[in-house]
Amino acid sequence: MLLDTASLYFRAYFGVPDSVRAPDGTPVNAVRGLLDFIARLVQDHHPDDLVACWDDDWRPRWRVDLIPSYKAHRVAVERPEGPDEEETPDTLAPQVPIIEAVLDALGIARVGAPGYEADDVIGTLAGRAPGPVDVITGDRDLYQLVDDARQVRVLYPLKGVGSLQVTDEAWLREKYGVDGPGYIDLALLRGDPSDGLPGVPGIGEKTAAKLLDAYGDLAGIMAAVDDPRSGLTPSQRKRLDEARAYVAVAPKVVRVAGDVPLPDFDPALPSEPLDPELVEALAARWGLNNAMHRLLTTLRK
């Protein structure tokens, strides 16, 4: 089980009231919500391994160099020497170090890599996995990893994590008319304002799906642009032709990396905390006794 951790703690932050606070008044709604999410996921799905995948760099320079608008609207502080600071709610940012400390004390693997997003860590680990993989994310970009033959699926939270949309190839084909790899072409043609991906003007999701159905993939669509006998409308041909520069670089930006150099780590789901005394201290300091007890009870089963 691979967790898109930031996606989940953002959901927890907005799903759990900020009245959930530590004894000193610090909001811990995202921390408690994430712990409850993990407990529910373990209880419902019984993974052997669980990895909290981390954004060491949420806006990698190599992606920005290709498409400068990539996540640009979410930058709070630009840092030429390192990762830009992401715009994060004032009461969420201080909770992220607490989440790191709690996961580490529990012994739940938390894995990131300099210069890469959690998506890239997930893509790399999914590619390496010898058995079934469940990716837990609220980010549709990761639909590209769906692969029935390798038993890789995406579980997309609809309400908390108790109600998950099971995304497999059949679901993707019914919803979008594509398979996992085909979702990359669909996403880059359609664009994604939340990631600052412009897409091809005038090519929305439905049109992109129809073009992919007619021409197979992005290469087939661009070949049709150059073929006067193809069935593209004049406006489609014009828009795609004008978007050649974007289309040439967008696949590298949208496709998650599958070759991220990762540190050594133990993905096994712990049955006991790595540092029981620290877990107890963190639970007391941040008012997480009940959430921690629920998770530890689930881990021990």
Supply the key terms:
301 residues; alpha/beta; six-stranded mixed beta sheet; two-stranded antiparallel ribbon; 13 helices; 8 strands
What can you see in these coordinates?
The chain has 301 residues and is α/β, with parallel strands linked by helices. The protein is built from 13 helices and eight strands. The strands form two sheets. Strands 5-2-1-6-7-8 form a six-stranded mixed sheet, with helices on both faces. It has a two-stranded antiparallel ribbon with strand order 3-4. Helix 12 runs antiparallel to helix 13. The mean pLDDT is 95.
Low-confidence stretches: none
Alpha-carbon distance between the termini?
17 Å
Mean pLDDT score, rounded?
95
Numbering strands along the chain, what is their spatial order in the largest sheet?
Answer: 5-2-1-6-7-8
Fraction of residues in β-strands: 5-15%
Determine Rg (CA atoms, Å).
21 Å
Tell me briefly what this model is.
With 301 residues, this protein is α/β, with parallel strands linked by helices. The chain is built from 13 helices and 8 strands. A 6-stranded mixed β-sheet has the order 5-2-1-6-7-8, sandwiched between helices. Strands 3-4 form a two-stranded antiparallel sheet.
